[in-house]
Write a structure and sequence with these properties.
The structure is a single chain. With about 400 residues, this protein is α/β, with parallel strands linked by helices. The protein has two domains: about 5-205 and about 365-395, Crotonobetainyl-coa:carnitine coa-transferase, domain 1 (Rossmann fold); about 225-315, 2-Layer Sandwich (formyl-coa transferase, domain 3). The protein is about 40% helix and about 15% strand. Helix 1 packs across helix 8, helix 8 (about 165-185) crosses helix 9 (about 195-205) and helix 11 crosses helix 15. It starts with 11 loop residues before the first strand and ends with a strand. The model has no long low-confidence stretch (mean pLDDT about 95).
Length: about 400
């Protein structure tokens, strides 16, 4: 994306976040061109040091940001934070309920000095009996029914990504952008809250609705009753796997034509989807045997030619060499804090055919702070004094 078409260019964002949900909001706003500064403790965000399944959190969700490490326990550090917020358009925070209020950084206090401030809180729960609780992505996947729908019966399983953190952050961005538009008319900001639990509820709403429509409780997706006759993972001749979904009557006709299934095409009892579902025990063995006689690549070429939805069964790392993502600019070369470079997915949206680009690599602790603070109008002397006193890292 060119500098001229960054939709949020000039918007100033200050971010008090860690882990995934809050940083996702800053990532999206930063990718869209906003100037984002991440406020970290003097030792740096703990997310930087996570291992195991959290090892990729910081690397994925903190590009296109500057960093300021500051001691918020000191009066000078706290005053500086307030001054930064007073000169910013948007503030993001995802700490436990009440934590920012105790610091004097709650919305009520900050909006007095900055009436146009859009203040986005990312929490476990919206208003109600649970609002005091601290939650995690996995906690709300469990209590919201998503883990039940993902795992096999009796074995609830969290989804294989931080889907609720990420989508909860996306809802936060939706709220911010709506408040930004309203501010154009009123000049006033607003407090936005997005949550994990309510996001999970929204995600499983289709299954609640399904029970209302069908009159019976939906089973977990791992043992679901498919709405289509061919909607499964199949083995190819070379031992690879491919998912195939024939999800309409017209696709069924093209599928039969491509794979020379003349008897299926001529059978009028298979003309409609619901009728085919009733005869899955006849259709699937034939399809499985057919696919098992073809190599994966030949199978995918023919499915593509027929216009049938299909997918190889990939691992996440396979995407860094995906020809579509590579050709379309969907991968960004991000330099990690260890100096290595890795291709990471960019924002999945285009503006007039252009995608967001990498403007800033992952910041080291304090990197980019001086330029950002000077751009807000804070004096160089203030920054130098904080650094000299050991109350900030600002480079």
């Amino acid at each position: 994306m060119t500098e001229q078409v960054r939709p949020l260019a000039g918007i100033k964002v200050v971010e008090f976040t860690h882990m995934v949900m809050g940083p996702t909001v800053g990532l999206i706003l930063g990718d869209l061109g906003a100037d984002v500064i991440k406020i970290e403790p003097m030792e740096g965000d703990n997310t930087r040091r996570l291992k195991g399944s959290g090892g990729g959190y910081f690397a994925m969700y903190n590009r296109n940001k500057s960093s300021l490490c500051i001691d918020l326990k000191s009066p000078e550090g706290l005053d500086t934070a307030r001054e930064i917020i007073a000169r910013s358009d948007i503030m993001i925070e995802n700490f436990r309920p009440g934590a920012m209020d105790k610091l004097g950084l709650g919305y009520a206090a900050l909006s007095e000095a900055n009436a146009g401030l859009i203040y986005c809180s990312l929490k476990g729960f919206l208003s109600g009996p649970y609002e005091h609780r601290t939650a995690l992505d996995e906690v709300t996947q469990m209590m919201g029914g998503l883990a039940y729908m993902t795992g096999p019966p009796g074995k609830p399983l969290r989804a294989g990504s931080s889907v609720i953190d990420i989508t909860g952050g996306m809802f936060g961005v939706i709220g911010i952008l709506a408040a930004l538009e309203e501010r154009h008319r009123t000049g006033k900001g607003k407090q936005i809250t997005s949550s994990l639990f309510e996001t999970t509820a929204f995600m499983v709403g289709q299954h609640i609705a399904q029970q209302g429509v069908m009159g019976e409780e939906p089973p977990p997706m791992s043992v679901r009753r498919s709405a289509w006759s061919v909607y499964d993972i199949f083995d190819s001749k070379d031992g690879e796997q491919v998912f195939v979904g024939v999800v309409s009557d017209s696709l069924w006709r093209r599928f039969c034509e491509e794979f020379a299934l003349q008897d299926f095409a001529a059978d009028r009892s298979l003309d409609t989807n619901n009728a085919r579902v009733q005869q899955r025990d006849i259709i699937l063995p034939r399809v499985r045997a057919l696919f098992a006689s073809l190599d994966k690549e030949e199978l995918m070429v023919r499915l593509d030619r027929a216009g049938v939805p299909f997918a190889p069964i990939n691992k996440p790392i396979d995407l860094v060499s995906d020809p579509h993502l590579l050709a379309g600019g969907g991968l960004l070369d991000v330099t990690l804090n260890n100096g290595q470079t890795i291709k990471l997915p960019g924002l999945p949206v285009e503006f007039n055919g252009e995608k967001a680009t990498l403007r800033k690599n992952l910041p080291a602790p304090g990197q980019g702070a001086r330029e950002h603070l000077l751009g807000l109008g804070l004096g160089a002397q203030l920054i130098d004094d904080l650094v000299a006193k050991g109350l900030a890292i600002a480079e």
